[in-house]
Write a structure and sequence with these properties.
- The chain is α/β, with parallel strands linked by helices.
- It folds into three domains: 112 residues, Rossmann fold (3-Layer(aba) Sandwich); 234 residues, Alpha-Beta Horseshoe (pyruvate-formate lyase- activating enzyme), CATH 3.80.30; 56 residues, OB fold (Dihydrolipoamide Acetyltransferase, E2P), CATH 2.40.50.
- It has a five-stranded mixed β-barrel. Strands 1-2-3-4 form a four-stranded parallel beta sheet, sandwiched between helices.
- A hairpin with a 7-residue loop joins strand 13 and strand 14.
- It is globular and about 65 Å long.
- The two termini are 38 Å apart.
- Bound molecules: 5'-deoxyadenosine and iron/sulfur cluster.
- 5'-deoxyadenosine binds next to strand 11.
- The site of 5'-deoxyadenosine has 12 residues, from strand 11.
Length: 437
Amino acid sequence: MNERDSDSAAALLIAAGHQFTANEDDADIFILNTCSVREQAERKAIGKLGIMKRLKEKKPDMIFGIMGCMAQSRGEELLQSIKHLDFAAGTDQIHMIPELVEDILKERKKSYLGDRTSPDSPGIDSHRFEPGEKQYSAFVSIMRGCSRFCSYCIVPFVRGPERSRDAASIVNECKMLAERGVKEIMLLGQNVAAYGMDNTAPPPPPGVSPFADLLTQINDIEGLCRIRFTSPHPAFFNDRLIQAVAELPKVCKCVHLPLQSGSDPVLKRMNRPYTAEQYLNVIRSLRALVPDITFSTDVIVGFPGETEEDFNATRRVMAEAAYDNAYIFKYSPRKGTKSAKWEDDVPQEIKEERNRILLEDMEQALEKRNRALSGRVFDVLAEGPSKRNPNRWQGRTDTFKNVVFLPPPGVKEGDIIPVKIARTTAMTLYGEIPDGM
Ligand code: 5AD
Ligand code: SF4
């Protein structure tokens, strides 16, 4: 989400006559995009703000701004306390950044913009393309904000309520990207499964999913090969969406489905309106229709009051869900949220231990499951040379498994090629182009 927003801001500044540089030292305008979801992310941003002081000392005319969640929630305070900061643009003010920069160039004064605008704020669909370079993958934001108010989460406060974009405008953006050579699109939103049902309580009526309808339209776009999305809320993942994911050929068979906890009492205190059983039923239904489908998840360990029994319930659900990837977060209270009023009573060492156990469980099971894939052939979207060994290439299956292979002559980034798996680990499949291909 933040990467998409940074790209929009860069594209808008380029359209206003500026140039992009990947090198901090060359920049005359530097904008730090910030996240507030966890305390650690905020701490990192504050550290970076400090480092920026040195850059500005070397180049006093440099324009220095922040955008994103921290700009929204703490922009005014940061502008006051950080002398070298010129502007803060809130989460719905990305389209105003070029104007802010122009104003500062004309008249040096600090500016804060934190108003909310419509979801289709100009610029939400702008993309930066490297000149002469083909880009095979792109992010598309389909909605802004979140209205779920999970009791631990700051997002609804900093990003505002759910606002879905108009389907026609999203489809046009995807068509434009496909025409420029994009093969894979990642649809983004805090709660994509509730697309088109802004601010309504789950569950949606059976057979109704505006998000599934949107996927169907995007699936018809010529030139696109793969559609992915993140993140859907399990309580909105109904029969219609399950069917769409299973049946639409371009929709990747990998689903990120945030669990948060496998214990019903904890889920209740988290204000997550589903039980572990209901969550598992979504996974079971998808697996019954698409046996190869893979899942990933987000889990919070050490939520206030999480007992050993609660934690073991999470372990059990995770074992059945059999994830390919899990982002485990140690609970940290966020000011202004409901759970911040409760005692953060799980000691740090226990949070760390629970974190480690969940990752170990997952890796062990995954290694075993991946072993069974040896000998199979998968269509792999080639992403380019592997980081570890540049003689090999790396790519992804449609189930998002990482594949390392010897590149066939003439292969280009974004090509989809068959790879036969020879060897596997928990995180990677190693293979080669099958004979005769
Ligand atoms: N503490 C720890 N993890 C959190 N997340 C959100 N808020 C918190 C918090 N206060 C995690 C959730 C969410 C992911 C993006 O961040 O798991 O899905
Ligand atoms: Fe936060 Fe819950 Fe919304 Fe996700 S669904 S962004 S965890 S409030």
